[in-house]
Amino acid sequence: MRRKQQGVALLLVMWACTLLAILLGGYAALAHTEGLQASYQFQQTQAHYAAEAGVMRAIYALQAPNINDRWIADGRVYPFPFDKAKVGISVITESGKVDLNAATPDVLANLFRAAGADPTRAVTIAQAVVDWRSFPISPQQTAQRAAAYTAAGRDYGPRNGPFASVEELQMVLGMDTALYEAVAPVVTIWSGRSSPDPNTAPLLALASLPGMSLQQAAATIAARPPATANAGVGLVANNGITHSIRSEAVLADGTRAVLRATVRLQGFRPGSQSFAVLRWQEGDGE
Q: The T2SS protein K first SAM-like domain covers which part of the protein (predicted)?
């Protein structure tokens, strides 16, 4: 009987040791996972702040006291080493983009065609953009516009007023995801121009100008002066005051962070901020 009790006790001890080993293994795995998560979050935070430093660097460079030190806001990438990160910063002045609320129908159609839409579809979507942003002249016109969206299966109609955001373009009749993603980086609601400034317009926006093909636009951009001292002073004069900044930071281990901001420069004045943020986004998604 005593030996039987000793055997049971030994078995219980073995089970307890096994259970304890399992628990310790679980805790060790959990601690390891939490350590990896903490390391990842630290690296992501470091990359994020490096990208944020890139945005601040761009804001300063756009209004540097010495005009020769200012950056050209036409989308070219400026490298900026920060701490342990490599930061690439590009700036596009909003005056170089196609304004959804001010661009002529021809400019809009050219933009959509350059982005891949066939000519007929490009003209149709351009007219839909104009209808969306324009106040109707009669109740009949309001009803006609709403009926077109209803017939397309939409549960909404056009705004019948100016675009409130670039993202709103996705709601326009005829617009699809592929076309929107192609044109979103080169459209704006902040320039007020009927056509983009050819001195700073990126490729698709430049190709929206009447008589300008994609090939001609690419050649024009290639002929712009490099971002070296004194070479781009003429282009700097066309920078405007409202800009979209994209800052991408990459750490040595490959951790990456992207920040995109639209800012309006307000000049250096005592007691006031030198810029206003109109839009702030993390990542490359819209």
A: 101-190
Please tell me the distance from the alpha carbon of residue 253 to that of residue 3, in angstroms, as a whole number: 61
268 backbone dihedrals φ, ψ, rounded to 5°: -85, 110
Q: Is the pLDDT of residue 8 over 70?
A: no
Q: Hey, how many other C-beta atoms are within 10 angstroms of the C-beta on 216?
A: 13
Q: Give the residue, 269 or 217, on which the prediction is more confident.
A: 217
pLDDT greater than 90 at residue 52: yes
**252/248 Cα distance (integer angstroms):** 13
In order of 114, 122, 167, 201, the CA distances from 208 in angstroms are: 7, 11, 20, 10
Rg of the chain (C-alpha set)? 28
Q: If you average pLDDT over each of 60-69, 109-118, 223-232, 237-246, which comes out highest?
A: 109-118
* Distances, alpha carbon 133 to alpha carbons 38, 103, 128, 160, in Å: 48, 11, 9, 5
Q: Which pLDDT score is estimated for 230?
A: 45
CB 96 within 8 A of CB 197: yes
Number of Cβ within a 10 Å radius of residue 78:
17
Instruction: Please provide the distance, in angstroms rounded to a whole number, between the alpha carbons at the two ends of the chain.
Output: 76
DSSP annotation of 163 reads -
Distance CA 27, CA 24 (A): 5
Helices (H), the chain: 2-62, 105-114, 119-133, 139-151, 177-183, 203-207, 214-222, 233-236
**Distance from C-alpha of 74 to C-alpha of 133, rounded to nearest angstrom:** 27
| pTM assigned to the model | 0.78
Beta bridge partners of 249: 87, 257
